[in-house]
Design goal:
It is a single chain. The protein has about 290 residues and is α+β, with helices and mostly antiparallel strands. The strands form four sheets. Strands 1, 2, 3, 4, 7, 10, 11, 12 and 13 form a nine-stranded mixed beta sheet that branches. The chain contains seven helices and 18 strands. The two termini are about 15 Å apart. The protein is globular, with a radius of gyration of 22 Å. The longest helix has 16 residues. The protein has three domains: about 90 residues, Pseudouridine synthase (2-Layer Sandwich); about 130 residues, Pseudouridine synthase (2-Layer Sandwich), CATH 3.30.2350.10; about 55 residues, Archaeosine Trna-guanine Transglycosylase, Chain: A, domain 4 (Roll). A hairpin with a 2-residue loop joins strand 17 and strand 18.
């Protein structure tokens, strides 16, 4: 059975979970048995673009996707706000003020760097065991907390038919819908996100993303190995005399271990993701 990733080109009007179900069905038909599948980061149902899907042992790497940088192209509409902060919600506020390009460029620097961002109520964040979007649809009162995210860059590309089109580079966990809400507020107006396309998620780029039809024709052609996701991680090769101990899960003391998360290789094979703990090598996620 395969282990790795497929860089799926998600169409609009599908949830990320729908994509997982679709890919799982394609792989089951191809391999004749159920394959473990999961996505590496939700993309709004109305959004399109890159959605990395993990297969088999690739799904074990989900905890490390928090370090992935995301790039989006998104349209912002000013003068109207919806309850979902996108084009699919009900209009809740209007304002006559439509900012100029120059006014927008003036406030953008305030949103670069580490910021405390309040997620939209219509989001997949868990609130006492329930998704925030379910509570919002039920009309329940609840409060979300602001979370620290990092915005690396926001560039206004062009304006067309009232759409201000931006390219945004940010950390995982950033809500573009919140960015438009907050930029609008800084400009004394309201706004919503009219469209969003994810151009990049970590190492996965839209130029290499594939459709369901392509995957159905030849799944194996589009399965990227686990090592593709880990190619930027520092590598540590376990000395041969300690190989058996490490393979058996024994923590061994070693000098000059890399900082942070790193790949651990035993006899040339990828064992998993390791960390240094009190001078010892600990294999946190096993892939062999």
């Amino acid at each position: 059975m395969p282990d790795g990733f497929i860089n799926v080109l998600k169409p609009s009007f599908m949830t990320s979970s729908d994509v997982v179900v679709k890919v799982r069905g394609i792989l089951k038909k191809h391999y004749g048995e159920k394959v473990k599948v999961g996505h590496l980061g939700t993309l709004d149902p109305g959004g399109a673009g890159v959605l990395p899907v993990a297969i088999g042992k690739g799904a074990r790497l989900f905890p490390y996707t928090d370090e992935s940088v995301k790039v989006y192209r998104a349209g912002f509409k000013f003068g109207v706000e919806t309850d979902t902060l996108d084009s699919f919600g009900k209009v809740t506020k209007t304002c006559d003020k439509i900012p100029t390009k120059e006014e927008i460029l003036t406030v953008l620097p305030k949103f670069i760097g580490k910021i405390a961002q309040l997620p939209p109520n219509y989001s997949s964040i868990s609130v006492n065991g329930k998704r925030a979007y379910d509570l919002a649809r039920e009309g329940k009162d609840f409060t979300l907390s602001a979370r620290e995210v990092k915005i690396f860059n926001i560039e206004l590309l062009y304006v067309e038919d009232g759409n201000f089109v931006f390219e945004i580079t940010c950390s995982s966990g950033t809500y573009v819908r919140s960015i438009v809400r907050d930029i609008a507020a800084a400009l004394g107006t309201v706004g919503y996100m009219s469209f969003i396309i994810r151009l990049k998620s970590g190492k996965f780029e839209i130029a290499d993303a594939v459709t369901f039809d392509e995957i159905s024709e030849n799944p194996e052609k589009y399965i990227l190995p686990v090592g593709f996701f880990l190619s930027d991680f520092k590598r540590f090769n376990v000395p041969e005399p300690l190989s058996e101990k490490v393979l058996n899960g024994v923590k061994v003391k070693l000098r000059k271990l890399p900082e942070g998360n790193f790949t651990v290789y035993v006899r040339g094979e990828l064992l998993g993701i390791g960390v240094e703990e009190n001078g010892c090598l600990t294999v946190r996620t096993r892939l062999l």
